[in-house]
Amino acid sequence: AQSVTQLDSHVSVSEGTPVLLRCNYSSSYSPSLFWYVQHPNKGLQLLLKYTSAATLVKGINGFEAEFKKSETSFHLTKPSAHMSDAAEYFCVVSTSGGYNKLIFGAGTRLAVHP
Amino acid sequence: DTAVSQTPKYLVTQMGNDKSIKCEQNLGHDTMYWYKQDSKKFLKIMFSYNNKELIINETVPNRFSPKSPDKAHLNLHINSLELGDSAVYFCASSQVGSHTEAFFGQGTRLTVV
Fold it and tell me: What percent of chain A has pLDDT over 90?
């Protein structure tokens, strides 16, 4: 069965410093992986996705993630945090079988300080 | 134009009542979903419909009944509401097939008192 583990429940950075949100996945086949962001009292927005093309995936708002099969990881990074990046981030794996089912990680709350 | 829209955004109701949440998507997707987000922000799939047909039903109590009148709509009806049903419910849609991303609505915050 597929699963994802987000290694940090909370991450705090200063504005202008790099962001690293860690995610490990478990899958018996080549997975599709996603990062979603949820701002307070808002819906979920797709940041980026990996679907077995390039292992380094660029997303919106300067975020990127690298798929590393040997480490079963899909960490999310951004070179320089902005105050508006403060939100909850979810790493997600998709199941196979024709009909899509997204399995969510527990989420990482990112705080950005001035 | 909102791609996936849910109504209402907030719903406060008493235990034992029956309520419905409506969802509509204008993306032309064949597959729609309901997800539940609990107080710890954990998200879990409840149901999935493809072209009006139920394809995923995740151990959800029978008090929850989804209805899809057409492939652009997926409503969620909840009978005999309980305190534990308080959560944020998200509707989503996606293209049919594996490994496609889902587009989410803004969520409905249900509070049962």
Answer: 75
